[in-house]
Specification:
7-stranded antiparallel β-sheet, mainly beta, 339 residues
């Protein structure tokens, strides 16, 4: 993703915001510096590495390179499809304790292999918040991209925002719009609620279902878990994930692992070693309210231990490993758990 702009005009309307305390340092470091695969969430791609994003364009979604379905059209579609639409949510950006953007007219851009990115009308960005730089890059689909430093009070961060300056005609709706680098900002909000990890994707869905199928987990000849009432989680772009109540697990075989990862849709994730197998299981012990049916249940990595569903062994599907992203700066663990 690349971006640009000149100084805008109307400053955002200040509103009350939730207080945010700092995440305890030891936990903050464990989350941000964790480089192990995490179930169901990914890391924003860097210019040097292609990785999956979320929703329409992520993993095996319809706009991704690894889509498991296809569009029923007589002619082949372009190799890359970008999708833009009005978000229809009020969104705000906070930088150095200052609201620098506030808009009800945000455009969300979905690009293959990227998280969705929010683009704000320049008039909804604070007038002094952007400082033009000499940095210009080129986006393969959307043309030249000008970069800005973000400025508020005594703080300035380079390459913190961007704007497309030579858009093709079919992408004119992004003209005069500014996007902000997620990690460079202090926080993004929808109304008065902080959005964590990346812009919320309206096409990312999670469904959780009870089932009477039998799930068994083995390590060699040892039965680690056996349940006749597991829970299955269906998440956009992923194969089903099976979760087991702790009462159906031999927890003497599990050892908690130091370090957590973060999923924007499920919360903080804890891990367990089983025998000599590292991070063979995970649990969202304090899952978000929206997915609290999996709270404190345990799921197992089918490529690390043997997982059987009704006697048939499961295998990790291609393209389903995901590298975790770090959480937002100054994230309070209680803020994550309260979601």
């Amino acid at each position: 993703m690349r971006h640009l702009a000149d100084a805008p005009s109307a400053p955002p309307k200040p509103r009350a915001q939730p207080a945010a305390s700092r995440l305890p340092l030891h936990l903050h470091v464990l989350i941000v510096n964790n480089n192990h695969p995490t179930p169901g969430c990914g890391q924003p791609p860097t210019p040097h590495r292609k990785e999956p994003a979320m929703g329409l364009s992520w993993q095996q979604g319809p706009l991704s390179a690894g889509a498991i379905g296809h569009f029923l059209t007589p002619e082949p579609l372009p190799e890359r499809l970008l999708f833009a639409e009005r978000l229809r949510r009020r969104m705000r950006v906070k930088f150095n304790d200052t609201w620098i953007a506030d808009s009800e007219n945000v455009i969300l851009l979905h690009e293959p292999g990227r998280y969705p990115v929010a683009y704000f009308p320049r008039e909804d960005v604070a007038e002094q918040a952007l400082v033009a730089s000499d940095k210009v890059t080129h986006h393969k689909d959307l043309g030249d991209t000008a970069w800005y430093a973000a400025h508020a009070g005594d703080r300035t961060i380079e390459r913190a925002a961007w704007e497309f300056t030579a858009l093709p005609g079919h992408a004119a709706e992004l003209q005069g719009r500014i996007a902000f680098a997620w990690r460079a900002m202090d926080a993004f909000y929808e109304e008065d609620e902080r959005i964590l990890g990346h812009a919320a994707d309206p096409y990312h869905r999670i469904d959780i279902r009870n089932t009477s199928r039998t799930l068994e987990v083995r390590l060699g000849d040892t039965v680690i878990a056996r349940s006749e009432h597991p829970v299955v989680l269906f998440e956009s772009g992923f194969a089903p994930r099976w979760y087991v109540p702790r009462a159906d697990i031999d927890e003497t075989r599990q050892r908690p692992v130091e370090g957590q990862t973060f999923c924007s849709y499920k919360g903080l994730c804890d891990y367990y070693d089983i025998g000599d197998v590292h991070r063979a299981a995970w649990s969202y012990r304090n899952a978000y309210r929206e997915v609290d049916r999996i709270a404190d249940l345990v799921s197992f990595e089918a490529d690390k231990v043997e997982v059987y569903l009704d006697g048939k062994r499961l295998h990790l599907e291609p393209g389903q490993n995901v590298v975790p992203h770090g959480v937002d700066r100054d994230l309070d663990v209680d803020e994550v758990k309260a979601r």
